[in-house]
Amino acid sequence: MHAAPDCPLHASLADGTLPRQISYWKKFDLLIVDEFGLDYVERRLDPQAGHLLFKVIAARNGKSSTALGTNIEFDAWGEYLGDAPLAMALLDRVVDVAVHFPVETGVLPELKVW
């Protein structure tokens, strides 16, 4: 497991290191974004958060794996992010070649080992 870099994505906008930060998140074979949708307060305080997530996902798209855990239905992403075109672009990259495991609250799916 790797720790987050010293310079978060948001700070990299101010100090001009965004390309380096995107490269940092692009290098992992698997990036796990868990609990997407539980940070509503933080997202409202930082309107750039959705755009920064998109930059990371877009940079990784087709090159490495990303697992995204969320309790937000796909059709509600526009409202959650506050930007419908951004939500569509993000979803386009997330579900392009995704395996979707919908889970009912309190019910874990039976996973088969291949």
Distance between the termini: 25 Å
Query: What is the succession of H and E elements?
Result: HHEHHEHH
Q: Tally of extended strands?
A: 2
The CATH class assignment is Alpha Beta
Q: How many helices?
A: 6
Which sequence of strands runs across the widest sheet?
A: 1-2
- The secondary structure category is alpha+beta
**CATH fold name:** Rossmann fold
CATH superfamily: P-loop containing nucleotide triphosphate hydrolases
- Count of separate structural domains: 1
| Global outline | globular
How is the topology of this model organized?
Blueprint: H1 9-15, H2 18-26, E1 30-36, H3 40-45, H4 49-60, E2 65-70, H5 77-81, H6 84-95
Parallel strand pairs: 1-2
Helix pairs in contact: 1-2, 2-4, 4-6
Descriptors:
single chain; Rossmann fold; two-stranded parallel ribbon; 2 strands; globular; disordered N terminus
Structural write-up:
With 114 residues, the chain is α+β, with helices and mostly antiparallel strands. The protein has one domain: Rossmann fold, CATH 3.40.50. Helices cover 45% and strands 11% of the residues. It has 6 helices and 2 strands. It has helices spanning 9-15, 18-26, 40-45, 49-60, 77-81, 84-95; strands spanning 30-36, 65-70. It has a two-stranded parallel sheet with strand order 1-2. Helix 1 (9-15) runs antiparallel to helix 2 and helix 4 runs parallel beside helix 6. The longest helix has 12 residues, at 49-60. It is globular. The relative contact order is 0.14.
